[in-house]
Amino acid sequence: MLPYGRQTIEDVDIEAVTATLRSDWLTTGPQVDAFERDLAEWTGGVPVTVVSNGTAALHVAYAAAGIKPGDEVVTTPMTFVATASCATILGAKILFADVEEDTANLDPAAAAALTTERTKVIAAVDYAGHPAEYDELRKVADEVGALVLADAAHAIGGTYKGRFVGSLADLTTFSFFPTKNLTTAEGGGVAAADPELMKRARRFKGIGMIREEAEYANPNDGGWYYEVQEFGVNYRLPDVLCALGRAQLTRLGAFKARRTALRARYNELLADVPGLRLPVERDWVDPAYHLYPVRVLDGRRREVYDKLRAAGILVQVNYIPVYWHPAYAELGYQRGMCPNAEKFYAEELSLPLFPTLTENDQDRVVEALRTILG
């Protein structure tokens, strides 16, 4: 079976994890701080706090932004549900803006049409690893005093107009799930340049605990003392997984280069296959490709999906428009709201893409597509 995504684990990763298991720290130890420092080298120096998974990262980011009932969040429907649901569970009203017809990223003009004085966050997603239009989204956000959040679960290591993903928005979230560009098994991170936002993020993911004596509301009873002034959750990422992440980060550049080469080879091999539309890339971005999303035309996506999977090529569809899920339908959201996103969903198919994918594997995928669509 050939999956659409796969982790890349080598001896160096196993050795890093083993060394940590033999140390005095399995969690809340030195590997956590070290991993956060290492990650900041990939965000242009913007501080990062690591968390237990990518969904936790979104929850933490929205909490750091101060999302509360009555606030509005403008976001894309072409994403995993957590991009929206983590704001919903904090009480926000979600306004889904349509995507650009070609990149499937949040359309700044569509976002602008939905902003109001109640807009607290505009949340973009770097679909497939291609950064969204952050300069334009920043203008939209500034008009209403909102924050920009980048869901960069697909995009660590990428750049936009020469600037690192992680430095493009007020808050940026990462995922380190096995199929992503690097993995900690489960894990994620939140980047924020604003010290206040980062402080709020760190406290929320750490159960709200405060240990800075200068900020105590009550007298310090002793060395054991701490306070919780605002509620938080436990989203800590343990040392053993941070050690894995640190080992992975040393090869992130190589992972990115291999994914880029594989994408270029797909572009060449699939250029003349009938009934396919290939992904696009803006001139001003250097993506860190997580997915290779083609569009299967003429209503044949289901047929191609079924036949490829029957042949052992485990393609995927990314994503069902978020407001199609019953949880949002019950809140009154209706199909037809975002026609570009819905058309993209009807045609999208993610082909296998991961650093250890061989050219023979890729040829197998291409030949199968030619056979089905020829």
UniProtKB/TrEMBL annotation:
Cofactor(s), by name: pyridoxal 5'-phosphate
Pfam family membership, one: DegT_DnrJ_EryC1
GO molecular function terms listed in the Swiss-Prot or TrEMBL record: transaminase activity
Superkingdom classification of source: Bacteria
Keywords: Aminotransferase, Pyridoxal phosphate, Transferase
ATP-binding found in the keyword field: no
InterPro entries tied to this protein: DegT/StrS_aminotransferase, PyrdxlP-dep_Trfase, PyrdxlP-dep_Trfase_major, PyrdxlP-dep_Trfase_small
PANTHER family the UniProt entry points to: DTDP-4-AMINO-4,6-DIDEOXYGALACTOSE TRANSAMINASE (PTHR30244:SF34), TRANSAMINASE (PTHR30244)
Family membership: Belongs to the DegT/DnrJ/EryC1 family.
Name used for this protein in its record: DegT/DnrJ/EryC1/StrS family aminotransferase
Annotated source species: Hamadaea flava
